[in-house]
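Bumping with the actual sequence this time:
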Amino acid sequence: MAEYTVFIWGDEQAWERAGAGAMQENLAAHREFMARHGAALRGGNRLHPSSVSTSIRHTVDGGVSVSDGAFAETKEVIGGYYLIEAADLDEALRIAAEVPAPFGGVEVRPVWPAD
């Protein structure tokens, strides 16, 4: 079995326009997803908005640059993730296709084990 990270991308402004009801529906959809795929889930979390993120980059002189916000200005940002275990990429994609992402989508990447 291999592990895959499923990044959940979304449009934060669309969420703001949608209101609290849409958020509650989405949270319920995620609870249902987790119940259906609990055997494959190894972790996951919802993230705070990108407006409260901090970016760190290494500079050419060996220093570190710290700035408020995400690395890039983009419409869609990572809003959460799941870590899943699957037999292969095809199974991981079948599971990921069921992740609720009404204002965006998901990206699936194999995890590269440290050992």
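The tokens above came from a reply further down the thread. The CA atoms of residues 19 and 56 lie 32 Å apart.
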